[in-house]
Amino acid sequence: MYFSVIVPVYNRPQEIKDLLSSLEGQEFRDFEVIVVEDGSKISSEEIVKEFTSSLAISYYFIENIGQGFARNYGMEKAKGQYFVLFDSDCIIPSQYLRILHAAIADRNLDAHGGPDGADVDFSPFQKAINYSMTSLLTTGGIRGKLKNPGSYQARGYNMGLSRKAFEVSKGFIDPNKAEDIELSLRLKKLGFKLELVEAAFVYHKRKNNWSSFFAQSFSFGRNRINVSRYHPEAVKFIHLLPAFFLLFCLGILLAAILGIQQYKLGLGLLGLWLAAILVHASVLNKSLIVGGLSIFTSFGQLCSYGAGLLFEYAIKSVKG
């Protein structure tokens, strides 16, 4: 057995069905699938049973311990040489495992991370979320596209590591607070080779609504600071930009309230950025609707992420 695909799931049976359906069509066939039900109240067991004839699949139910530790549980049960980790809301292109297998051999990889994107049949809102999280105009395009693949920090929705890397590192040490980034940094410090495999992408079919997306972005900001408790170098200048963006927007508002005329310059710069997003997202997605939604998802994501950064940094400072 070469690959063991590990998928934690929590109250999302339909998502796991879509993911498993995509795994049925993999061109590379030497793999097993391990589904770890992380204390769900809505079981996926019956869904998993539907795939026992087409996939080498195992199902485990455990008490809720968080996605990082659920992944550890799955890797402990795995039989493969290399563990591939997906979130339950991902759809896997048919060439994924074939591409990854070749990359591991050609580049002598011990671990990897891959990008995510939106498929053509995703809703306009899902495409707008994808744009705000991956665009050069929002996150700098660092989520899955880097000149130096060795500097990539893998994300749990699409990453993997060898059996040896897992046995040495012991896997995730946090259940759900940027545990993937922490493991990425720790694996590199342990001497393992982790790189971005850009061609090994997944379609990320997020089920967010407006409030859950902004709440998630807030958590992502907090989590980045949380990782710095283990790895102080985890927070770089580019990660702080959303906090500066939020302060810039608040500065515009404060200047307008106080009657300071320079607020017009700031408002003009903000307007130019939003207009660029409208045009860019509309062209990329061939949809003015997606472009319009991307204005709000991009603005809200950066503000929420920035607020999370500042909030967690304040807590860290108070605790010393």
UniProtKB/TrEMBL annotation:
Residues 4-167 form the Glycosyltransferase 2-like domain. Keywords: Membrane, Transmembrane, Transmembrane helix. The chain crosses the membrane at residues 237-258, 265-283, 289-311. The keyword Transmembrane helix applies. This is Glycosyltransferase 2-like domain-containing protein. It comes from Rhodonellum psychrophilum GCM71 = DSM 17998. The lineage of its organism: Bacteria, Pseudomonadati, Bacteroidota, Cytophagia, Cytophagales.
